[in-house]
Design goal:
- The chain is of the alpha+beta class.
- Strands 1-3-2-4-5 form a 5-stranded mixed sheet, with helices on both faces.
- 23% of the residues lie in helices and 21% in strands.
- Mean pLDDT is 83; it is low at 1-22.
- It has helices spanning 45-57, 70-80; strands spanning 8-10, 36-40, 61-65, 88-91, 94-98.
């Protein structure tokens, strides 16, 4: 669907490592100026929903193809404690959630 072989930048930069998940995190409302990284699989419909949402609300983000880019997949696993669920949302270098929607799906 997206055909990304490497990470793509949409406003932000690459995240540094961190691994903490907040139970009160709202993935649909990212603070202005925050660095948003989204780890995806190109044909994932939940990834497409997350991307469409952030584009619609004007939130800059960086996409990382966790299916085809081994380095991106390793970073995603490092952030998510080996959870393969996508999209994997990382904000300001801190893992926030895997999946999209209510309830989370991916």
């Amino acid at each position: 669907m997206f055909g990304f072989g490497r990470s793509r930048r949409f406003g932000g930069g690459l995240a540094s490592n961190g691994n903490a998940m907040s139970t009160s995190f709202d993935a649909e409302r990212i603070a202005p100026g925050a660095q948003l990284d989204i780890y995806i699989k190109p044909d994932c419909p939940y990834c497409a929903q997350a991307i469409a949402h952030y584009k619609h609300v004007g939130t800059p983000f960086t996409l990382h193809d966790a299916q085809n880019d081994r380095a991106a997949r390793k970073r995603m696993f490092d952030f998510s404690a080996n959870d393969p669920t996508v999209p994997c949302i990382v904000v300001d270098g801190i893992y926030r959630q895997s999946g999209w929607g209510t309830p989370l799906r991916g």
